[in-house]
Amino acid sequence: RELTQDQLDTCRTTLCEAATELFVEQGPEGVTLRALADRVGVSRSTPYRYFRNKDEILAAVQASAFESFAQVAEAAYKSTSDPIERLHAISEMYINFALEHPDTYRIMFDFLQRGDYPELRRQGARAREVLIKTTEEAVESGHLKGDPKMLAHVLWSALHGVISLHLVGQLHWGPSVNDLAKFTVQTVLRGLAT
Predict the structure, then answer these.
(1) Distance between CA 163 and CA 180 in Å, rounded?
(2) Which of 6, 132, 138, 187 is least surrounded by CB atoms within 10 angstroms?
(3) What gap in Å lies between CA 111 and CA 158, rounded to an integer?
(4) Tens of pLDDT along 89-138?
């Protein structure tokens, strides 16, 4: 029988949630359509009604993770109008998101999904755009100097490095991950200030 759009969306969401669980438990290699069917309790052919293959389900899971991140980043952006305060708010959001949702964070960054997946591309760009737009505003207002995209990339790389080290258990000496991340942001912004 024909399913309504709401029913299709619900089924896709259920499959994505199960794929996320499999990813967290076993990594991307553990996400197969057969394992997905077993996890959800449907026939082995059912996932193929919603996804062509494993890569497509992984792209959907990754797109969903970036969408969650983008929503929180956009809220941080709206929390203040000052560009430097915005950069601090976005950086703090980034740290908190990674620490509160480490599995989602890993899904976003632990593997590269190859191929053309428009929703994944759109959500990834949406997540990056908040930081790029804020660095553009900081440059335009005279708070920072340089190419906004490069500045955004430097700030993201610094934060990502701290968070990634923490998530693999390599920050076992010195300051807490929160203190180190905040100090990293302050140091980077000071170095980029005019």
Answers:
(1) 10
(2) 6
(3) 19
(4) 999 999 999 999 999 999 999 888 778 899 999 999 999 999 999 999 99
Cβ neighbours around 23 below 10 Å, total: 23
pLDDT for 194 equals: 61
Please give the Cα distance from 31 to 23 (Å, whole number): 6
CB atoms within 10 A of CB 112: 6
Q: Which residues of the chain have pLDDT under 70?
A: 1-3, 194
Cβ atoms of 135 and 145 within 8 Å: the answer is: no
Three-state DSSP state, 144: strand
Structure tokens at 134: 């804020």
Q: How far apart are alpha carbons 137 and 37 in whole angstroms?
A: 47
> Whose CA is closest to 19, among 34, 36, 42, 40?
36
- Residue found by looking up tokens 């197969």 in the block: 32
Q: Which residues of 157-189 are buried (b: 16+ CB within 10 A; e: fewer)?
A: ebbeebbbebbeeebeeeeebeebbbebbeebb
Predicted local distance difference test score (pLDDT) of residue 5? 81
Q: What is the pLDDT of residue 102?
A: 92
Instruction: Write the DSSP symbol of residue 174.
Output: S
* 3-class secondary structure, 193: strand
